[in-house]
Structures
1.
Amino acid sequence: MSTPTAIRVAESGWRRYKHTWRASLFSSFINPVMLLLAMGVGLGSLVDRNGGPGGLPYVAWLAPGLIANIAMQTAAGESAYPVMAGMRWIKSYDAMLAGPLAASDIVLGHFAWVSFRIVQVTVVFAAVSVWLAGVDPLGAFAATGAGLLTGMAFIGPVTSYTAKFNSDTSLSNLFRYVVVPLFLFSGVFFPITQLPGFMQPLAWLTPLWHGVELSRWLAIGIDTTFAPLVHVGFLIAVGVAGIIAAIRLFEMRLIK
């Protein structure tokens, strides 16, 4: 493994994106803005009649959670179908391995490219949060750091999951049974204290919940359930374990 060759893999992602960026506009930028308007401003006006969470306007409370969520969705989206394509459909990873690249270069290059995409979408959403939700600019952009950690905690695990299967049916199941439930029940829209007691410890085991907690702490100063370093450590540990697993699976599936 060498850093320059991994960077070349990330560069290939950028070169492809220059030709396909228009297709990502809705999912990466317009859809999150519409979600913030509908849930934060629309529904939020009803929530605020009885007082928003923590005494804050609901839209300001919601926005940092959505920063963590868009990071998760970007990481999952970029590590699912594109990885399946490279491994099974167009076999671009086989072509890379025929050159001076190792499986670890492919995984780390993919990790770097997706991390760039996460920064891209979270920075845009942070700007929207300042505009629509009135979040302090410094806090909003600090929350992009939590978003990056959140997304990085999903890149490796989703890449590993994708590498195990040959059919995109498994990817549909991933989004249906993992990504969407995490989106709904990890504290993005309401505090997990409103969940049944037995479900709350389950939320503690999800990277998205840790990212939401960290993002809100950075953006609007809400105290976290655990010490911030615990959330950071959890996200880093999951991300590193995912990368190691992805490298092993790529070596098993691609190197004959």
2.
Amino acid sequence: MKLYQILIVTFLILVNSISFAFCQDITLSWDSSPTPDVDGYNVYYKQGNMDFPFDGIGANEGASPVDVGNTLSTTLTNLSDGMTYFFTVSAYQNPDIESTFSNVVSNSWLPSLTIPANNVTNEPVPVTFRWETSPTGYDVTYTLYYGTDQNEVSSAGSFVPPPTRSGNNRIPTGLILVLALYFLMQIKYRSIVPIKNLSPVYNLLLIVLLGGMLSACGGSGGGSDTASDRSATSAETPATESVLYSINKGSSDYHQAYDLSASTTYYWKVVATDTQDPNLTYESEVRTFTTEVF
């Protein structure tokens, strides 16, 4: 069966109210699909973040997605009070043909991207990025991310723990072997053979020296293996390189980019960071556009 896309123009939150049962009832509304003969719409929701899949549960209307029929608004009830939810919608024609997702919205504030429009082609360079600023009560600064790899842009700004240091703090294997031999000889012969006339201090210094020599000659076996692993990983890395830009815009709500290539697809997003609490961030959806042919 042939599948095709049904486009959703816009998708808006209208009401976010708290019921007497201390749960959220959230009303959503969207524009109709420009494709004729749409049979209905699916409303997807999820708590906590906007990462797909949108597989939320808890609404009285059912688990995500909720089939709301051929209507342009709906209310999801009994969602947990005080929790942030994210929503998107799709249109369908019979159960087997479904559109792509609309833009993602939330019951709490997120930076709303204005231009370029999502999925636009032949976008002239320089490209002007613009987003809506925060409502009253938020004190934030904005960071713009854009690049050619969707996954890199999506994960940009997330904390990545530093790699574990490998092998530098291990005791050399050669030294361990010599120490073991030393104690075995002490147990059996009550002295070191054949250097039994030396004092224990000189014997210990000799052991350390021999252990270091064995380790330097490859006794530990760790260095060359690590280097081989790194070479193999580098050899498997694709030759095509992606680019990722990070622009701190302060309180500004736009940026002009002159450094974009022709006929190239880019992804972009904006992250707002609270000026008092750097761990408190508000992240927009990721949008895409393709630049014009120069």
3.
Amino acid sequence: MAQTKDRLRNNSPGPFFVDSSCIHCGSCWQIDPEHFAPTGSRSYVHTQPNGQQEIEKALLALIDCPVAAIGAPKDLTENLSADGFPILVTKHPAGDIYYCGWSSKHSFGASSWLIHGAEGNVLIDTPRWNSPLAKRIKTMGGINQIVLTHRDDVADHANWAKAFNCARWIHQDDADAAPEAETQVRGLGVLTLGKSFKLIPTPGHTKGSMVAVLGDQQQILFSGDHLWWNPEKSVIVASKDYCWWDWTEQLKSVKRLLDLEVNWLLPGHGYAHQFMPGQWKEALEKTLHHAARASSTGQI
């Protein structure tokens, strides 16, 4: 629980605040950028919510915080409802996409996504175990498969797999992070799991990193920690600083995604982004060009 005595000084005056226990995972400003923002080392409240709708959005950020670093008055939190999760992100012919919330400190607050699809529901990475969220997902048809994009973001996968009796996918090279996983992806080949859903190994961030792609046109890319969006520079980011295995291999993996037709980029960390037709390839080529020109920098 956030402590008033540990309230960060740069918070806007008012009832909502972030305290010094913040790990700067970004979950709050991804959900509610109108009120939360990053500083470089921690997040903070830049503008206090005004009105019921804005307060409810800020409370979702409070619930989502993996280390309970967001504080608010007791009269706002004592009857706190988690019914706002999962949050609809976009509708797609192959399935509606939801943000699950309930980020886990074990995956440093990584985002997890639910595909509510005709071929069965798929959970991309896992949030912290939470009964209210599980009940909501059960009413949506449960979970048929869990995809673990890489070793960092497996969180409470065992609880979710047990609750829904569903198979988990993880790459063989990261399988020690989830040794109970029922199925493993091997090598670099693209694995098709349905008419419009596939897994693409993208080694680099970790040896067993992979991304998931939904759809044949206007595709949804679930990128794990392979790529994310930087809204300040309007660029796709691959990070050398946060590359735990092999940066050269990660850039090779980025090139593997050039021919996709991505409409939405939904990462494990960092900002999501929607692309218009043709923008994806142009943006990714820009990222690769910058990497070739400044390969010694920590982030591109």
